Amino acid sequence: MGVFQKGWYENRVLPRVVELACGGEHMECWRLQAVEGLHGTVVEIGFGSGLNMGLYPSAVTEVVAVEPSLLARERATARIASSGIPVRHVGVDGQSIPLPDNSCDSALSTFTMCTIPDVEAAISEVQRVLRPGGAFHFLEHALAPDSSVAKWQHRLEPTQRRLAGGCHLTRDPVALLVAAGMDVDVVTSRYVKGPKPWTWFTVGRATVTS
Ligand SMILES: C[S@@+](CC[C@H](N)C(=O)[O-])C[C@H]1O[C@@H](n2cnc3c(N)ncnc32)[C@H](O)[C@@H]1O
Question: Which of 8, 25, 16 is nearest to 74 (CA)?
């Protein structure tokens, strides 16, 4: 099955599981660090069910959302309405964002760089749609720095990908952004509470180097 031809589990169940796993008060402090400093028009790749909507700073004037899951988009409706920030769903694939070059002031990914199949293509698209000087804010679970944990991440990754919509445990978002020519400022990287293969979190911002 292709990226957008999913079965019952991925269409009807997984978006709810993601909301439980990635939502909740314990995630808010991480999400707040990710959204801090976002302003103007923000492109959010993997918008999901809008869990960042209540946390966006007041300087954000519009969110352009890229999200393939119809159920997640439906479940975002109430959060969008109560945020007071206009949201345009512009596309379904971060690998090909239907926006003009230099059209966004900032960009955001929370727990999405792990899932997009060709993440290098998505980073390139974010670079294209960001205005010069615009920052790509990210919050991701990532490859752990400890070899014993990383070994388990590699072992568990095939099962994780099958059960969690293609989510990788062994991606290193900072290395990917640096390899794409971006200047990365890591705000925090550390383990959060929970099983270590899933809980090495990293939050930061990346800008295009001149
Ligand atoms: C783990 S969820 C995170 C959702 C949301 N960003 C959050 O923080 O709650 C990953 C999201 O990426 C979306 N996704 C999957 N493939 C994608 C793609 N090619 N382009 C953009 N988003 C994608 C999924 O539908 C899902 O909503």
Answer: 16
Distance CA 9, CA 7 (A): 6
pLDDT at residue number 5: 60
DSSP-assigned beta bridge partners for residue 41: 62
pLDDT for the residue numbered 109: 98
Give dist(CA 43, CA 29) in Å, integer. 21
Compute the distance from residue 55 Cα to the ligand 1 centre, in Å. 18
Distance, CA of 65 to CA of 73 (rounded, Å): 9
pTM of the model: 0.95
Lining ligand 1 with CB less than 6 A are: 3, 18, 22, 45-46, 48, 51, 66-69, 72, 93-95, 110-112, 115-116
* 46 Cα to the center of ligand 1, angstroms: 3
What pLDDT does residue 4 have? Answer: 56
